[in-house]
């Protein structure tokens, strides 16, 4: 309150930062100024350095990262197909090449996954054959053989689903409505 009064009555640039005992920070800065501006004026008039070289380097690095982030956001929008009307021919060609490279990479990964799935399928088939052979050697009969002997209807009667299912037929033709 007093800092606001001094700002209004004396037409002064005032900045106040208070740290409470709980660690909470409160601040006030005159409406026409910024805290950085006031700190720069203090530095020039007093000759004391509030910011050392390390802090300036960090500040510069922060500014550089912000600019890089902004440019990456713009590039991401371009990759999504947004704001491409402002791009020049060479930029559009580079964008097209980047998209084609990404698509080729995705297709390559897809082929690799397909090959892995084929290998896994082959391994599982071989393991299944080996287990059926071992079962047959021990005197048992593989599951497929027993089902074939009992027949299709025997399997259907013995089938017990874990969850009950209900179905309702929805006729497509209007004349079927009358029959139901």
Automatic annotation (TrEMBL):
Single GO MF descriptor: DNA-binding transcription factor activity
Q: Where in the cell is it found?
A: Nucleus
Main location (coarse class): nucleus
- Keywords per UniProt: Coiled coil, DNA-binding, Nucleus, Transcription, Transcription regulation
Keyword Nucleus attached: yes
Answer whether the UniProt record assigns the keyword Coiled coil to this protein.
Answer: yes
Q: Which PROSITE patterns match?
A: K_BOX, MADS_BOX_2
Question: Per the database record, which ranges form the K-box domain?
Answer: 55-141
User: Gene3D superfamilies given for it?
Assistant: Transcription factor, MADS-box (3.40.1810.10)
Known InterPro entries for this protein?
MADS-box/MEF2_TF, TF_Kbox, TF_MADSbox, TF_MADSbox_sf
**What is one GO cellular-component annotation here?**
nucleus
Residue ranges annotated for the MADS-box domain, each copy included: 1-32
Which spans of this chain does the record mark as coiled coil?
Answer: 48-82
Q: Under which name does UniProt file this protein?
A: MADS-domain transcription factor
The gene name reads GLO
């Amino acid at each position: 309150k007093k800092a606001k009064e001094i700002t209004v009555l004396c037409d002064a640039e005032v900045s106040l930062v208070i740290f409470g005992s709980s660690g909470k920070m409160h601040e006030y800065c005159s409406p026409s100024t910024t805290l950085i501006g006031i700190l720069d004026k203090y530095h020039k008039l007093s000759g004391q350095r509030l910011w050392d070289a390390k802090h300036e380097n960090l500040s510069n690095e922060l500014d550089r990262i912000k600019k890089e982030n902004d440019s990456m956001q713009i590039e991401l929008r371009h990759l999504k197909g947004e704001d491409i009307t402002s791009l020049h021919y060479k930029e559009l060609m580079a964008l097209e090449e980047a998209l084609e490279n990404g698509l080729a990479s995705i297709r390559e990964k897809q082929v690799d996954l397909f090959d892995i799935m084929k290998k896994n399928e082959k391994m599982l088939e071989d393991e299944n054959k080996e287990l059926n052979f071992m079962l047959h050697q021990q005197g048992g009969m593989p599951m497929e053989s027993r089902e074939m002997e009992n027949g299709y209807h025997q399997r259907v009667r013995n089938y017990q689903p874990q969850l009950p299912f209900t179905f309702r037929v929805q006729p497509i033709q209007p004349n079927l409505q009358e029959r139901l």
